[in-house]
From TrEMBL:
InterPro entries noted in UniProt: H+-coupled_symporters, MFS, MFS_dom, MFS_trans_sf, Sugar_transporter_CS
Chief location of this protein within or outside the cell: membrane
GO CC term (a single one): plasma membrane
Domain Major facilitator superfamily (MFS) profile: 30-439
Keyword Transmembrane helix annotated: yes
Source organism per UniProt: Paracoccus denitrificans (strain Pd 1222)
Pfam families: MFS_1
Protein's recorded name: Major facilitator superfamily MFS_1
Length: 444
């Protein structure tokens, strides 16, 4: 997607230069670079989830299918353990050296690690060393991803005019979903075109091989941009925080707690609805893999469209109102929607997934901007990255594993729905403690 198209999709106004003290062309480049870079990172990261059943066969062929899938999702979950550590390290780099530097290195590391996954030997070739290597590479991926979402949002927020900040930062979850959509479409295509044997032999490696060229494209675009006006101002006034993590936990513990709590809904909802759902539909509902991925692809497309609408509405209604509304909707509608999936036709399943995606956009279209607004500039990257990644480590990365385990332990296909309801309740409590941040200048 070209930068002018992105600017048009985001409704870029001509007064952006005045508000953000940069030219409209620079703002367009910022939006384009953030979209492309985040798209590449999450296409790489999501491919693992979409090919989980095939990866389970390649790396855990000696155990029962359910156990193999659990082991595959366990590797997915364990790789998230490194993310809070990555958030602290990337946050320190972003707050001390610059946002652009952190984002450039994160995309390079992610692309390299993803390419390595494509080249890993299977269990039949090297035995137990294969899943060990898979875990190591996944942890490198997790470390890299820890710096991407927070960095891209902070980068855009610090370039954005106050009255358009929600709309502009919504491009980050939109690009994340676009990466997932590309992975889902590729998965649907490969499962349709290749036989089961071909998929297990080489088909699952194809998306991972695309990582390196895509990563270099994203890196090239990012290196052509200057760092944000906010960060350059800090550098000029010698207010760059030498130890942002210490400053964060000494003076901003309340903001960290609120950010962690509200992100729990994003973490569980994002990975259950947009990543785990194809596996749930194929393993629990008996839907064909190609159909399951197609249904998810359609819902992702609607999600991308709606995310911009929610970003714009959060500028008008407020971040707190939008995020509280999201929690209440998930508490009330998750279990009924999951119940309707059992025995539903393909068209009905698609409509249910679109409904879930719409609910998720109420949270996701608002959350990035809110997290960038509650922390001051000198610790913005660190605060956002740590709280966001800590919640994703505990609740996001474990969501597919917990969902699969809950179904196995309880025998209920609705178990994942109740887990999502619990996450929504935690997010609601966090937002009731928060203050409104919309329509105000970023805190310095």
């Amino acid at each position: 997607m070209s930068n002018p198209m992105l600017a048009s999709a985001a409704g870029l106004p001509q007064d952006a230069a005045k508000d953000a003290e940069v030219s409209p062309d620079v703002v367009k480049k910022v939006l384009g670079a953030s979209f492309v870079g985040n798209f590449v990172e999450w296409f790489d990261y999501a491919s693992y989830g979409y090919f989980a059943t095939v990866i389970a066969h390649a790396f855990f062929p000696e155990i029962a299918p359910t156990s193999a899938l659990l082991a595959t999702f366990a590797v997915f979950a364990i790789s998230f353990i490194i993310r809070p550590v990555g958030g602290i390290i990337w946050g320190a780099i972003g707050d001390r050296v610059g946002r652009r530097t952190a984002l450039s290195w994160s995309i390079l590391i992610m692309s390299g690690a993803t390419t390595v996954i494509a080249l890993l030997p299977s269990y039949h070739q090297i035995g137990m060393l294969a899943p060990v290597l898979l875990l190591v590479v996944r942890m490198v991926q997790g470390f890299s991803a820890a710096g991407e979402y927070a960095g891209a949002t902070s980068f855009i927020a610090e370039y954005s005019p106050t009255h358009r900040r929600g709309l502009y930062t919504s491009i980050v979850p939109a690009s994340t979903a676009a990466g997932l959509l590309a992975g889902s479409l590729m998965s649907a295509g490969l499962f349709s075109l290749l036989t089961e044997a071909q998929m297990q032999s080489f088909g699952w490696r194809i998306p991972f091989l695309l990582a390196l060229p895509l990563g270099f494209i994203g890196l090239y675009i990012r290196l052509r941009l200057e760092d944000t006006p906010k960060f350059r101002e800090l550098e000029k006034t010698h207010h760059v925080e030498a130890t942002p993590v210490r400053e964060l936990f000494r003076n901003h513990r309340r903001q960290v707690a609120i950010a962690f709590g509200v992100t729990c809904l994003n973490a569980v909802g994002f990975y259950l609805i947009l990543s785990y759902m194809p596996t749930y539909l194929s393993t629990e509902m008996g839907m064909g893999k190609a159909q399951a991925f197609l249904a998810t692809s359609i819902s992702l497309a609607s999600y991308i469209f709606l995310i911009f609408l929610m970003g714009m509405l959060s500028d008008r209604l407020g971040r707190k109102t939008a995020l509280i509304t999201a929690s209440v909707l998930f508490i009330g509608l998750t279990v009924p929607l999951f119940s309707m999936l059992d025995g539903a036709s393909f068209a009905t399943i698609v409509l249910i997934q679109i409904a879930f995606g719409a609910l998720l956009t109420v949270n996701d279209g608002t959350l990035p901007c809110f997290l960038s607004e509650i922390f001051p500039t000198r610790v913005r990257y660190s605060g956002f990255a740590f709280s966001f990644n800590a919640a994703n480590a505990l609740f996001g990365g474990t969501a597919p594993f917990v969902a699969t385990w809950l179904i196995s332990a309880t025998g209920s296909k609705l178990a994942p729905a109740w887990y999502l309801v619990g996450a929504a309740g935690l997010a609601l409590i966090a937002m009731l403690m928060a203050r409104e941040t919309a329509g105000k200048p970023l805190e310095d």
